[in-house]
Inverse folding.
């Protein structure tokens, strides 16, 4: 089963496609970052995210797309509103392309990957490297990518498509 994890953002949208099978194997298919320019208007930026994500979906044909549930801190509501624009475009791409959409909380994703729901970004990134047998120098270098891959891997673990459930 191909699983696409997406870490949406208006500037950088990380993505990662893995393949998981029931005997307990997960492997990296593709990962990267969709970048937009801060100088472009919001309509251009969300269009750029949508077009690139649709191309990834069309080429890789994932069965499911995993997103982190949106969390808003009362001190920074504008941050979650801006992320909501990118997240909405990801949801739209799923709907138009008939891809199942799954949402997990950040703590659930971290617990599935590291065993600790409060793990830091470096710990998650290190576990993603380890679980996918990636050379430390090879990546994922970006937290946007490692977070997206963590989402995909967490689905494999939680739903039983990859290694044993944690």
């Amino acid at each position: 089963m191909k699983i696409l994890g997406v870490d949406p953002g208006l500037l950088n949208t990380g993505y990662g496609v893995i393949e998981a099978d029931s005997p307990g194997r997960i492997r990296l298919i593709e990962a990267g970052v969709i970048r937009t320019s801060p100088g472009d208007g919001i309509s251009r930026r969300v269009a750029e995210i949508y077009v690139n994500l649709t191309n990834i979906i069309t080429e890789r044909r994932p069965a499911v797309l995993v997103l982190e549930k949106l969390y808003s801190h009362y001190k920074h509501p504008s941050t979650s509103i801006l992320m909501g624009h990118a997240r909405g475009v990801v949801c739209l791409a799923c709907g138009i392309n008939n891809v199942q959409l799954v949402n997990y909380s950040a703590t659930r994703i971290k617990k599935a990957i590291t065993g600790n729901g409060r793990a830091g970004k470096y710990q998650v990134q290190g576990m993603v490297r380890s679980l996918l047998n990636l050379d430390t120098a090879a990546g994922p270098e970006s937290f946007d990518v490692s977070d997206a891959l963590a989402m995909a891997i967490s689905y494999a673990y939680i739903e039983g498509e990859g290694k044993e459930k944690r």
Q: What stands out?
A: The chain has a mean pLDDT of 90. Helices lie at 42-60, 77-96, 106-114, 121-131, 143-159. The two ends are 19 Å apart (CA to CA).
